[in-house]
Design a protein that fits this description.
By secondary structure, the protein is α/β, with parallel strands linked by helices. The protein is 32% helix and 13% strand. It has a seven-stranded mixed sheet with strand order 2-3-1-4-5-6-7. It is globular, with a radius of gyration of 17 Å. It comes from Streptomyces siamensis.
Amino acid sequence: MPTEPWLSRTPAPEAAARVFCFPFPGLGASAYRHWPDRIAGAELCRVQPPGREARRGEEHYGTYEAFAARAAEALLPLLDRPFALLGHSTGALQAFALTVHLVRRRLPLPERLFVSGQVAPHQGPWGPLLRMSDAQLVTEIGRLTRAMGGVESLGTIRAGLPVLRADVTAAQRYSVQLPVPLPVGVHAIGWRDDDQVPPERMAGWAACSARGAFRSVTLPGGHHAFLDPPPRLLAELAHEIDRFTGDSDQHHIDELSQRRAVARPEVTHRSRAAGA
């Protein structure tokens, strides 16, 4: 099983299900260091994108389309059992782009797409982070470092700013003109005190979900509450994971076959220059 460089540790071969977790902008797999290794029997697989942390010597992925293609190739051997994709902030867009790629290539699809603290792709790019100067991003790095329980330092800022700027640029350039209805259930998680993405701005994700399979919830906390997951968030995820890990293997096989028969979504993108 592949462990390097896309995942922070070797996946357990006996896991009944997997949840692939995509990080907060500026971070890698460490964004999930305070999370449990399993939720409701599903193993959490912390994704490490190129250009940061253990992969800081590699070139940044550049665009979400390029990221999705590379991630799909690397993770495909691990999509041999029920799985979900989970992302917060720009990580939600990475998870969405990967799902679109899997649909278009008729590859195994996630049982759920969990998105937190992010507007739907066809309603973006949006958010204060995308309009920040380098000086403002330095302040954001400090907030993020403290939210993760660390101490900000000159070294942290020097290492974090180029990564965060590259992640912001990728988000600025990614936009889907029309809603893309995926054959996947979408679960949108908003945060009541989120000063970056108010929960009411997440309603557009309903148009991306399979019919009758959209769920949304607003939890107490701000934008960074996701990094140290509150019990209500873990309970919400566990409830949804139980819904598909409890299915029989044959049901899962039949469902995958039906999904692969669905025509690929037509996705039209428009690019915006950095800083737009």
